[in-house]
Design goal:
Blueprint: H1 3-9, H2 13-21, H3 25-46, H4 50-66, H5 77-95, H6 99-104, E1 117-118, E2 121-122, H7 124-129, H8 133-144, H9 149-156, H10 160-178
Antiparallel strand pairs: 1-2
Helix pairs in contact: 2-3, 3-4, 3-5, 3-8, 4-5, 8-10, 9-10
Length: about 190
């Protein structure tokens, strides 16, 4: 790594955003390096295939670069770019006319059994695969991208109650699936409404 690139690795995200807003492309490159895999992981959890997650993540970072002056540092850069990516993925779903099918999808077959664990570790990705597409999408948006239920409902163009129902059912299924054998189900996170 060259000396000039090492300068950026020691900078805080907010400082990198400020530098990028002033035209320093390498500063934004450091932000992409830091947060690219997290954005792609969120998109995969929302249901995107690997290549689609790569495409949407790239589009999200391009949009973030174009709008970098809008980032005020009031939240994390990671959360900001994940919200951009989640909204772009939803627009892609709407454009493909798959969203209507997601909202109408029946409950997934629960024949998968208990939690998938390797060496005692909980596998969230495997747990998410057992949810219906609508539940996975709503849970990922509200807990992976950090959107409120109302923001997710707006982005999905669904009634707020429908989003809350998908999130509630999805979280209940995840808690039951990811509970330790013979143990207590996972404790809930904050109310996200």
């Amino acid at each position: 790594m060259s000396g000039s690139n090492m300068i950026f690795t020691s900078q805080h995200d907010v400082d990198l955003c400020r530098l990028a807003a002033n035209g320093e492309r390498r500063a934004f490159g450091e932000l992409v390096r830091r947060h690219g895999s997290g954005v792609r992981q969120l998109l995969r959890r929302m249901g995107a295939q690997a290549s689609e997650a790569d495409d949407v993540a790239q589009d999200a970072f391009l949009a973030a670069f174009e709008r970098i002056t809008e980032f005020r540092g009031e939240g994390t850069f990671s959360g900001w770019v994940k919200r951009i990516a989640a909204r772009q993925y939803l627009r892609r779903l709407q454009r493909d006319k798959r969203l209507a099918a997601l909202a109408q999808e029946a409950v997934v077959d629960d024949s998968h059994g208990g939690a998938t664990q390797a060496d005692g570790r909980i596998d969230l990705d495997e747990g998410l695969k057992t949810l219906s597409a609508a539940e996975r999408l709503c849970v990922s948006m509200c807990y992976g991208a950090g959107l409120s239920h109302a923001e997710a409902a707006d982005a999905l163009n669904l009634p707020l109650g429908t989003v809350k129902s998908h999130v509630k059912r999805g979280l209940e299924k995840l808690r039951a699936r990811l509970a330790p054998p013979g143990g207590v189900a996972l404790e809930g996170r904050r109310e996200n409404g």
